[in-house]
Design brief:
167 residues; elongated; single chain
């Protein structure tokens, strides 16, 4: 007698294996996507740093006088995406790939450290913290697995805060 098809037990075993593989695969793939978005965001911050470098060269190493952020695109204030746009080239450069709301609402996924506004790069101290530890630009929200990404005065970007007092 020839058998055609699968038995109920065989089907249940195959389904069990598939469910187990999906239970392992989905979180891993989500984690990989989140890390990928974070890497893209860090790269975007470095590009903003290059634009800021160009701005500083044209303005005697004096930081732009910017507001930290704006509530909506219609607000007429000097912010990152309005002042640095000529040095960056594309409005999309101000969008973090993990940001699903802020960019469309405000035009920028990043915020400016307004404590350094109008200061010379070398004089950028905040609460006694050295200028190389002070973030200049950072994510508006904690969109990434490691938290917030930062751009520092040496134009390096990182998800690790350097501005801990006492270090």
């Amino acid at each position: 007698m020839k058998r055609h098809g699968f038995t109920l037990v065989e089907m249940l075993v195959v389904l069990g294996i598939l469910v187990t593989l999906m239970a392992i695969g989905i979180p891993v793939s989500q984690s990989v996507l989140a890390k990928s978005r974070q890497s893209t965001c860090l790269s975007q911050l470095r590009a903003l740093g290059a634009g800021l470098q160009s701005y500083l060269q044209e303005n005697r190493n004096i930081m732009p006088d910017l507001e930290a952020a704006r509530a909506s695109k219609s607000e007429d204030v000097a912010v990152l995406d309005t002042v640095l746009l000529p040095y960056i080239g594309s409005p999309e450069s101000f969008r973090c790939s993990a940001d699903h709301e802020e960019y469309s609402k405000t035009g920028c996924s990043y915020a400016w450290n307004s404590f350094v506004s109008g200061k010379r790069l070398e004089d950028a101290y905040v609460f006694g913290i050295r200028e190389d530890r002070i973030p200049l630009i950072y994510d508006k929200e904690s969109w990434h697995p490691d938290g917030v990404n930062f751009l520092y005065p040496d134009m390096s970007s990182s998800s690790k805060p350097r501005f801990v007092v006492g270090n």
